[in-house]
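User: Hey, quick favor. My workstation is busy. Could you predict this chain's structure for me?
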Amino acid sequence: MKGKLFQPVVFNVITIVAMLFSLFQIVAGGVDRTTRTAQAIQLLEELVEEGVIEDEGIVSGVATDQSMRARLATTLYLTMLIAIVANVIANYLGRGRHHENLSRIRELEAELRGRQEA
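Assistant: No problem, here it is.
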């Protein structure tokens, strides 16, 4: 019975570790991309000021794109964190319910044995 108990726990731990790894990858990759995009916007703004580029739409387009990616990254962070917290809570609640059910099963088995002996 113990082998069956630990299998879901093992898979839940693997799920949590995978989500944490994914979250770390998003955070690590997102910071670098944001920095490079900010540098590109700054460079384009300097080129517009110098008169090399006359279309300011490029700068505003890149800035808008950066803003959209920042919102998407924030959404990904929050979604991943919510998934991790929900998984941890589900595991905690599931374990408590499992222990309650197990103790109730033991009580019923003892009651059944008592009836069989009588």
